[in-house]
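Below is our example:

___
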Amino acid sequence: MSSVDAATRAEIEELMARYCHRVDHADPEGWAALFTADGIFEVVGVMQMQGTEQLKAMPSTVTEHGAGTWRHQITNITTEQGSDPNIVHVEAYGLVTEWREGNKLVTFSDYRIELRRIGGVLRIAKLAATTAGMA
């Protein structure tokens, strides 16, 4: 197992924070820009979006279902440098909570993420979220 250096780790944490903020605050352009042009977002067994235009739909879906009260968190981030220096593999937990009428956990998932460095910037090439208990 080969972890990444501290600067790359900080870049990954910033990318994951932006992912959460952009999807929760209905920013389709900003959220899709975190992915590669052919990037994939998948909720395993439920849905898959690929490419910038499809990815832009996700923030509005979150707003529709959560009425603007859902909040994403990505925690317990682990990293492994890929055999290609421009690829990083990430495992993390993804929580979605709802902050209205009693506050509750909406979903808890295991994230498997492949990041690709393009033009010096890490982007999400694929993010697969498997709901806990579904694997």
Remarks:
- The CA atoms of residues 10 and 77 lie 11 Å apart.
- The chain has four helices and six strands.
